[in-house]
Amino acid sequence: MTARAAPAPLPPATTVGLQGWLRQNLFGSWGNSVVTVVVAVVLAWFLVNLGSWVLVEADWTVIISRAPLYIVGLYPYEGYWRLCVCLLLISVLLGMSWRAWPGPARRFAFAFGAVMLFVGVFPHEMAPEHRALLLLNLPFIGLGYVLTPRPAEAHSGRLEAMAGGALPPALERVAIFSTPRRMVIAAFVALVLIMILILGIAGVPGLDPVNPQDLGGLMINLLLAFFGIVCSLPIGIGLALGRRSSLPILKVACVIFIEVIRGVPLITLLFMSRHILPLTFPEELNIDRVYLAGITITIFSSAYMAENVRGGMAAVQTGQTEAAQALGLRGWQTTLLITLPQGLRNIIPAIVGQFISLFKDTSLVYFIGMLDLVEMGRVSVQGNQEFIDNGREVYLFIALVFWVFCFSMSFISRRIEGALGVGRR
Amino acid sequence: MAESNGVQAAVDIPADKAEILARPLEERDDIVVCENVHKWFGDFCAVRDVSMRVKRGEVVVIFGPSGSGKSTFIRMINRLEEHQQGRIVIDGIEMTNDVRNLDAIRREVGMVFQQFNLFPHITVLGNITLAPQRVRHLPRSDAEALAMRLLERVGIPEQAQKYPAELSGGQQQRVAIARALAMQPQIMLFDEPTSALDPEMIKEVLDAMRELAATGMTMLCVTHEMGFAREVADRMAFFDEGALVELGPPDQIFNNPQEDRTKLFLDQIL
Predict the structure, then answer these.
(1) Are residues B192 and B112 in contact, defined by beta-carbon separation less than 8 angstroms?
(2) For a tag site, which of A182, A313, B150, B231 has the least CB within 10 Å?
(3) What ipTM does the predicted assembly reach?
(4) Could you write out the DSSP letters of every residue in A95-153?
(5) A337: which chain B residues are within 8 Å (Cβ-Cβ)?
(6) For B119, which of A158, A320, A424 is closest by C-beta distance?
(7) If you measure CA to CA, which chain A residue comes closest to B104?
(8) CB distance B80–A338 less than 8 Å?
């Protein structure tokens, strides 16, 4: 302890606290004050009108009565329980993330649980078994949490400081997701199970195959965006490495692929995949449009991903490569062990940004006749006399859904950035 | 602080090495041979006609004004820079484009950089064990035991599980020294190892280097630490404008420089 200095003087009251903030940001000068007042009046007028419309005039029956269409499209009712089970698997993964990474993942797990609770108890038409399955998500988040040991045991070093509370020793022993590798395997297994549950397998009772065209609503937006990003990451890494390669043919091929794809709008690619590409297929090969859309979105996304990865790797200091070379690591070892991991860490914000943009872009699949959330909204209004005047409600609802998803993803991304120390070394 | 006295007085020196080190410098073999080495960056001649022989176990301090080619010169010794003319032989291995020769040379030569260049995404322990596991194919447990011995040697075993960014500059540089030593090189290159450090951390790094010199490691150090050079160096090399101007024992360089440029430079910095 050093000797105590005289108490530091306090800042003037007009520069701190609410008063200081108002003075600094809103009423700094005459001009600012006028702008503040005008904007406040306009904003208030807008909010009052919107609020009265939302609460009084709007008729939200269409949303409630058509909710399943918006969320899962034309998915057969008998299969709803399978989707509920998918949610349970996601809950386990969320609980796992919460334990392993308490900072960023906890709020997400909370939010997910809250939504499940809300939908589970909301008074609308819903089968009791589906309600029960939705509510079961809450204990399943806890299950994922319990199955994961404290981060100190799974990782070491900086995550230790963020570790959550301890569990009783008996519970610590059942922690099966005890290494990062096991967590990745668990996530992978869960994803495969989710795909099987959604699409079904022929011949297995209870898991009747679902016509891919019946997939729709928010579910298809999420599925396409998620699998687009997950599949485009390895492809993008491959393309980026190819573009950095010293082999001229490989390099040129990757550059051409990337630049051609990036130079064409997604909607054009979707059109081509639906109407032009099949002309080159043999007659008997009939790929469903859902898969075509998935492949197209993956290809589209991987070209952008490649450029992100390339940028991230280029940002890694040359000293890193030199140190690796000086230690005797070979070129490919240097790339895989040193440059690539650091490059990927650099681009986490960019990957999330790309995911958000891709998620919104998936609404373009209406163009090849798929009923995604937006198209389902349009159909539910225009295809039904009863709701023909409810377009505003439907589109506001859709906008809100997209916003909630995109905002929570960028929120998570910022937290991960902070936890990983992106931007500082 | 417990860390600053981490340099151990007693160090094990293997018997075969001790036998060589017992001989006077003149009777040892040349471990680094450079003959008429040139290097250009575009049209700019960064290193011109440098010839130098370094004995096994010798400590050579290389100094000179900035831009004099001293860093480029030592970076050619493990081929971070390619020499374009002349000949470099490291411990009997000719530096050529042959990948096998290059691999062998890089196993012989360790390097410590001005900016440390630790790998920020892996722990201190991971930084040190990476190359022994991947290049020398040591089992993980052996690599970790080796890493812990080296961390003890540089005085920071308690930092093993931390990430480089959590360490002070002096600690990072000591980890970098341990990382290079983990490959058990015959020669260590130091490229201004203390230039990026705050004054109070310079000593801990120089201490680690002193200790290393005492074990008979062959060292080529680019540094401006003249006190260290006077104390530890067997010979000092003065570079200016890409050329090796003067090469001699510290006594000669400091007290009786043979070249005017050496004298002028020393007058400026001392």
Answers:
(1) no
(2) B231
(3) 0.90
(4) HHHHHHSHHHHHHHHHHHHHHHHHHHHSSSS--HHHHHHHHTHHHHHHHHHHTS--HHH
(5) 130, 134
(6) A320
(7) A328
(8) no
